Amino acid sequence: MDAALQLEEIQNFKGKYPKQLWALFFSEMWERFCFYGMRGMLSYFMVDQLLMSDKVANLQYGATQAFVYAFTFIGGLFADKILGFRKSLFWGGILMITGSVLLAIDPTNFFFVGITFNIIGTGFFKPNISSMVGLLYKENDVRRDAGFLLFYSGINIGAFVGGYIIAIGKGSMFSDYIPVALRWNVAFGASAVAMTISLLTFIRTKRSLGPIGLSPLLHLPVKKQRIYEYAVYLGALAIVPLIIMMVSNTTYTDYFMFTIGPFSVLYFMYEMTKNNAAENKKLIAAFIFILFSVVFWAIFEQAGGSLSLFAKDNVGNNLVGMTVDQNGINNSINALFVILFAPLVGLLFIFLSKRKLEPNTTLKFGLGFLFLGLAFFTFYALRFTADESGKGSLNLFATAYFVVTFGELFLSPIGLSIMTKLAPIRMQGFMMGLWFLASAYGQYVAGLFGASISPSESASGIEKMNVYTAGYYDFAWYAAIAGLLLIACYPLLKKLMQEVK
After folding, report:
1. 193 occurs within a structural domain
2. pLDDT digits (tens, 9 = 90+) for 323-370
3. Residue 281 to residues 20, 137, 420, 487, 498, Cα–Cα distance (Å)
């Protein structure tokens, strides 16, 4: 069957979701188990096993996560120009499995090597599976946002289960079955198993995608295609030592972040010279959303940095009468709330759209920031529940994450969706990578924010509580102001986005 006809058949699906979405859903779910399992362990592992201070661990966490998301920009670029989404995703999966296996073998000595393979692998995997979701829909299909919200549920099922892996490393789960010396090995090994399942899921179901995600070089002789592809694979392996050096020394991270941002903006401007005026207006709108998202992620991503350490020292372990691991809750409960509410929010958007009442993208983004601000005011309020040792209520801590969830749902999957709406087809991978590059800067700033509010090592529990929550109070105001400013930009964004809602 002709590729154009195959694509049309996929996009003319009946009902609320295309069947191919489920294949991508499950592949992404297991990849996110690997990613969020790793993310949730980083700060704690660095303090507990590598004996870093809270401040250094926050900076290191921010640097590591910044590289993860910065490489999605590079991975999206190579997918657009050489590999295509499918081969890029497969190669990324292989690298992530390698990194997770290395960490499972010796998490202490192979820490930065394993993390580096996961960084590069995520760069090839993450932006391209999201781009394939966008291509399941026609240009003006009102069901797209709902599709991304369902896809986002898959992300968070993986995040929920993977986020609790830290309990294995800490010894608060399966401690009777796993020897103390092997707990962290098993925890990191679980990520390797999850990533293997993700890759096998994609391989088994990729035929249903028709022409979606194939190499852009199919018009070239096979031999020439292979030369370009192998050059990308070898290049990815060749930079491993360089990335290890930069990830392990946050000074080099600064240099990298000061370079990749200006380069990406210049390349973005170069690509705009190939477009017409209408396309460029949409890209400018996309870029404005990308800039605002940096602020969102800088605050939101305290979850893996300062909030992880805050939970360790300043949050109790009683949740509605049950004794639980507070770090497991920190890593997982947001994902659980997303799983429960993302499909409902998506169906709500479809319901409102049919009645011409669905809020536009700008308002969704603005509300996302306002929910984020309210959540951090709630984190601040933990100081009023602290006992004499400086431990606050886990119930209120979980409530804050409940509010965070709606901030995330109104911004993150909507951001993925709007990038596919506003970008020309030939720039889909690049713009998705640019969206994740904004996350990289958000992660980078999150590390700086977290380090700026880190209490001294000698601080008492009450002093730590007061220092951290004072920082969260400031972050709450940053989020609220950004949300109101974005909503005020609606007339400008409406003009730039043209027919896109």
Report:
1. yes
2. 888 888 888 898 889 888 887 888 888 788 888 888 888 999 999 999
3. 31, 22, 15, 19, 8
Residue 111 lies in a domain: yes
Q: Could you tell me which residues come within 8 angstroms of residue 103 by beta carbon, excluding any fewer than 6 positions away? A: 38, 110, 111, 114, 115, 188, 191, 192
Q: Contact, 117 vs 99, CB < 8 A?
A: yes
Give dist(CA 44, CA 183) in Å, integer.
14
Q: What is the CATH number of the domain that holds 30?
A: 1.20.1250.20
Cα(first)–Cα(last) distance of the chain, in Å? 33
Distances, alpha carbon 270 to alpha carbons 134, 264, 267, in Å: 24, 10, 5
In SS3 terms, 400-469 reads as HHHHHHHHHHCCHHHHHHHHHHHCCHHHHHHHHHHHHHHHHHHHHHHHHHHHHCCCCCCCCHHHHHHHHH
In sequence order, which residues have a C-beta less than 8 Å from that of residue 41 and are 6 or more positions away?
165, 166, 169, 184, 187, 188
Domain count, the chain: 1
Q: Is-above-0.90 flag for pTM? A: no
Rounded distance, CA 65 to CA 436, Å?
Answer: 11
The amino acid present at 467, given as its one-letter code, is: V
Alpha helices in 249-325 (DSSP H): 250-272, 277-300, 306-314
Q: What is the largest CA-CA distance in the chain?
A: 72
How far is Cα 128 from Cα 429, in angstroms, rounded to an integer? Answer: 6
SS3 (DSSP) at 319 = strand
Tens digit of each residue's pLDDT (9 = 90 or more) over 307-324: 988 998 899 999 988 888
Burial of 73 per CB tally in 10 Å (0-12, 13-18, 19+)? buried
Nearest partner of 188 among 74, 251, 122, 110, judged by Cα: 110
CA distance 403 to 313: 22
Block residue for tokens 């995520």: 122
- Using CA atoms, how far apart are residues 112 and 102, in angstroms rounded to an integer? 10
Instruction: Return the residue matching tokens 């394939």.
Output: 132
| Rounded Cα–Cα distance for residues 361 and 410 (Å) | 9
Of 481, 463, 337, residue with least CA distance to 389: 463
Is residue 11 a part of any domain in this protein? Answer: no
Residue 463: count other Cβ atoms within 10 Å of its Cβ.
13
Amino acid present at 33: F
CA-based Rg of the chain, rounded to a whole angstrom?
22
Q: Are 331 and 308 in contact (CB under 8 A)?
A: yes
What is residue 462's predicted lDDT score, i.e. its pLDDT?
A: 92
Range of the domain at 344: 17-497
Spatial separation of the C-alpha atoms in residues 98 and 68, rounded to whole Å: 15
Q: Is residue 1 part of a domain?
A: no
